[in-house]
Amino acid sequence: MFGKIRNSFQLVFIIMIASGLFASVNAQSLEEIMKTRGLSQTDMLAAAKTYTPSGKLDEYVVFSSGGQSGQVIVYGVPSMRILKYISVFTPEPWQGYGYGDDESMDIIYKQGSIRGKEITWGDTHHPALSETAAEYDGQYCFINDKANPRVAVIDLKTFSTTQIVANPIMKNEHGAAFVTPNTEYIIEASQIPAPFTNDYVPLTEFNEKYRGAMTMWKFSRKKGKILEENSFSVELPPYCQDLSDSGKNMSEGWVFTNSFNSERYIGGFGPGNTKFRDRLPHEAGMSSKDTDYLHMIHLDTAIKLFEQGKYKKINGHPVISMETMIANNALFLIPEPKSPHGVMINPSGQYLTVSGKLDTHVSVYDFKKMMKLINAKEYEGRDPYNVPILSMTKSLHGQVELGLGPLHTQYDSEKGIAYTSLYVDSAIARWDYLKLKLIEKIPIHYNVGHLVAAEGDTATPDGKYLIALNKLAIDRFTQVGPLHPQNHQLIDISAGHPMQLLYDMPLPLGEPHYAVMIKADKLKPLIRYKQKWFKNRVKPGRERIVREGNKVTVHSTLIRSHYSPEIIEVNKGDEVVWHLTNLERAQDETHGFSIYLYNINGSLEPGETSTFRFTADQEGVFPFYCTEFCSALHLEMMGYLLVKP
Ligand code: RUQ
Ligand code: CUA
User: Fold this and answer.
1) Which domains does the chain have, with CATH numbers?
2) pTM
3) Which ligand 1 atom is at minimum distance from the Cα of 513?
């Protein structure tokens, strides 16, 4: 009846008229609500752009790191409704992750352990989605652990963690996870340099024996697994390598990482530390030079060197030395402004954006110019490890002054347009990296770290939405003690009008660092598991208890709302192996399984089988029950484990 809606004000106008039409039947009119709640027309527009009525679905899905929670947070855009926490490095009982079943216990406690130590948390930083031809394909998500260098695989058919690999040589990392344009490799770069071996090396031998590295984890899409035996690392100088990105299109085959502390400043601060040159704290000593180094690593050459066996094994893991990389023209450095924090490749693969945290400029490097210098072997010098250095001025497309504390960049669907977070300014800049000019800035609240645009690191970003991942919320939400939630702010970046802030979403679960945003219709999760996928599955009618010596195997099924069998009697000291299959076909009919005292809690999703193992080491009566309110008779879904003396 209104024809084509031409602009947003028209839309608000229409909403207002429509609400006026119904004012007679509605006790409250839109105008009244606006007045009593103090809402402006802009607020109403923001509400209309994000409000998602019950039953309507989101256009995009965000996978956000969960910071210190060791998880991944999934939410919808534009509604900003949280959809899932995926447990990765940290046990999580609702998903039955790390509470007794074979599969998750193996991932979290076996695969996830390092040097024999079980680690039950992670500092997740950067999720990456699997790509096909530099486009998100919706199959897998990968995430790193900065604190205990590890990378995890999340299968997006089930939105659950299926693998953790521990880095065999690093003691800290940051530049992960990043994928190559067809997900052949998942890349992990170290951050705090350390010896590759696990022995004691004094800091006085820092320059000689401490090292950085980049690990190339080989990923098999078919198996849905990282193949550790086909993975290798490249040795790097002991600078603090930072965020990384892999080339695409014209720069495919290269991997980039930037760094700070190319000063190699260590161990300066604190009383009694007389061994070291001076007594500046790390933060000062590590940022005394004006430039650090952007690293260029030729992945294709590194793969060849690995296949030719040109590596040394350290802790059983193949490491290609800097010397070998240099001799094969596969490792270069380019100066970059002071203590940068990110290197981001544009959709065409030609331009690399680097932001110096302590510089107001963002530098745009031109891959073509870099390659010209490499091909002509035109080096400006060598670093102390003999790595060739390319000229910064000859590699640059140009620099733009955007504001204080530039950190990360995301790209728009419109050619040349990028968005950069300004940490110190608490703002996001929209700018043109081809014409090298600032277009506009929008204030955010407060201190933005990363930002994510819709499909913003693919070869064809969507524009439309941008989210500022803010470090501080301060006064944005109701006070809940000295520790506030993080604030994710949704911004409308569709072409044709200035950026508009739409929504503040509190995230009270760890400090998310980075996030990725994918078109929702690319995700094809399962409705239910196929029972036959599980080798321990229990078929209906085949429920039983089998005793062999002191080993008791229980074959159980679950369906609304009972376990079968419901009474299990064992002797004290018996080894119990308990297989449970959820026979449900109905969507979302999950059953739980918890036993008193044994620290067991399973989540059996439709069609899923889990196996729990424990020693019945205490005699007595142990009720078990279903922890999901699955039907009107859910409370009756219970049984007894009886342990005889
Ligand atoms: S990030 S240090 Cu920009 Cu991993 Cu947060
Ligand atoms: Cu099954 Cu409650």
Assistant:
1) 9-18+28-50 (no CATH), 60-397+406-522 (2.130.10.10), 531-644 (2.60.40.420)
2) 0.94
3) 5
